[in-house]
Amino acid sequence: MSEDKRVLLEKVREFEARTGQTVDSFPDDANNTASILKERRYLSEPLSSADARRRMSAASRRGFLVTGAAALIGVFGWRWMSDETKTGIYRRAFEFNEKVSQIFYRPTRLAPEFSPDRITAARFNGDAGLKSDFDAASWSLRIGGLAGRTEDLMLTLDEIKSLPRTEMTTEFKCIEGWSTIVHWAGVRFSDLLLKYPPKTHNSSQPDVINRPQDLVQYVSMTTPDEEYYVGWDMPSIMHPQTLLAYEMNGEPLKPEHGAPLRLASPTKYGIKQIKRIGRIEFTSDRPRDFWAEPQYGYDWYAGH
Amino acid sequence: MAQHLEKKHPLAVRWLHWINFPLLTLMIWSGLLIYWANPVYGIRILGYEVFQFFPQWFYELLGVPFRLAEGLQLHFFFMWIFAINGVIYIAYTILSGEWRAIVPVPSSLKRAVRVALYDAHIFKSKPPQGKYNDAQRIAYTSVIVMGAGSVLTGLAIYKPLQLAWLTSLFGGYQWARWIHFWLTISFVLFFVVHVVQVAIAGWSNFRSMITGLEIVDESETIRDPATTAEEVTV
């Protein structure tokens, strides 16, 4: 036993004899995590009981006053925020989160793709925009906001199918929290843009590949009856896994899943993957979005 | 007999702890509003579901149904403050040396069992400890790791494409959601035990989380002479 420990032990024995109390651990007791990790304690000089109590109650008054004030600020802050007229706070928070997402966004990052044997049963969840009478045979896609063109371009399904075909098996995620694995076939939105470039916001010649930042930054899509509508940012629409899909799980799209043409993309929640697209428009103004309307209050961006 | 005032909890830790309390409450509450929209988890024993999270009466009692959008609004607002508060706490704990009072060592497990036996009045002598006993060290360190786990699984669910590597680290989107859910349940269980233990430990211990100070007897100060005691002005 080292000299230090002997002295310390003597002190401890002396303390035990003087007070009749037992000291339960010694420095050579390696079974004390506090000693192993060299924990420090911070003690005042020795005080009489009365002094200790007096100082303690002063500190206590201070502490509880400050804590009480902080708690009141918290409660009133929360009540202020919970007021229905303050939903702007949350919309701005969504927009802030969107900006942060855009900073870290890389179009080269891809959602995982699955082998086709992992496909799960398709789930039907929303019929907004699908309730009106609809004749698929006479349908054609209208596209507005293209470069060098004032009137809408009309594309039949066959014309869309003549564009390069892309297939993918990806996870379809609903904002409610469930997900399914779906095999999609269709046309990459970016392939459509290459063939039919949108207008630019600075009246330069559109260059979809080299200068996508010059293109107008939003895409609006609506169902033929205009009951459902979504807005997309250009980077997400240009993502290589954003498809205008006409086949789902190896079959032509069914009406409830958005026949004849819908959006399919693992870059955003299902609410953004509009079914039965009637019209697409490229625009500089941030488009309205069905579920982002104030009465619903979902995130406009809803991006992954 | 002489007494000392001990500076037990640093000011930063007290603020961070008490700010975290309403934040975690709001994250759990908004999480419940979100979870309601797809309430798929339960406890299964031998293939039978013995408990489903959550029964309908539970949702109705708390007024949870059809508030998904509100839940998302709250969750994606308060997540920032919750995460920033947690990062500051961890940074402070590391830089100040406070971690020495909180983290366990491998042999802590054995001593935590002794703490439990002592608390159950089976063992007579109190196992040696610093500010926290070894059961507390394990619990507090776990809850910090859980907090980090909640942030990371949350990010994996929030950005499963841009952070696809993180999502796959947790076994995919649905596994990340499952872990995120069970971490939340664990927070609630931690909270219940924590409050009961604080109630048992008594007023002086609770007050020290407000004031930072606790009155200790001289015997307490030499209980563990190996722990470096520093004289400070309070």
Residues in β-strands, percent of chain B: 5-15%
Order of helices and strands of chain B: EHEEHHHHHHHHEHE
- Biggest β-sheet: strands ordered side by side in the sheet of chain A: 3-2-11-6-7
Low-confidence stretches of chain A: none
The third-level CATH topology of the largest domain in chain A is Sulfite Oxidase, Chain A, domain 2
Roughly what percent helix of chain B? Answer: 55-70%
Q: Tell me the major beta sheet of chain A.
A: 5 strands, mixed
How does this model look, in words?
The complex is a heterodimer of chains A (304) and B (234). Chain A is of the alpha+beta class and 304 residues long. Chain A folds into three domains: 3-36, no CATH class; 49-82; 112-292, Oxidoreductase, molybdopterin-binding domain (Sulfite Oxidase, Chain A, domain 2), CATH 3.90.420. Chain A has seven helices and eleven strands. Chain A has helices at 3-19, 33-36, 49-82, 87-104, 157-161, 189-195, 234-237, and strands at 40-43, 141-144, 153-155, 165-173, 179-188, 218-222, 229-233, 243-248, 251-252, 262-264, 279-283. In chain A, the strands form two sheets. In chain A, strands 3-2-11-6-7 form a five-stranded mixed β-sheet. In chain A, strands 4, 5, 8, 9 and 10 form a five-stranded antiparallel β-sheet that branches. In chain A, strand 2 and strand 3 form a beta hairpin. The model of chain A has no long low-confidence stretch (mean pLDDT 92). In chain B, 30% of the residues are buried. In chain B, the strands form two sheets. Chain B has a two-stranded antiparallel ribbon. A two-stranded antiparallel ribbon of chain B has the order 2-3. Chain B is mainly α and 234 residues long. Chain B contains ten helices and five strands. Chain B is globular, with a radius of gyration of 21 Å. In chain B, strand 2 and strand 3 (48-52) form a beta hairpin. Helix content of chain B is 64%, strand content 10%. Chain B folds into two domains: 1-76 and 209-218 and 225-234, no CATH class; 103-201, no CATH class. Classes of the chains: A alpha+beta (304), B mainly alpha (234). Chains A and B meet through helix 1, helix 2, strand 1, helix 3 and helix 4 of A and strand 1, helix 1, helix 3, helix 4 and helix 6 of B.
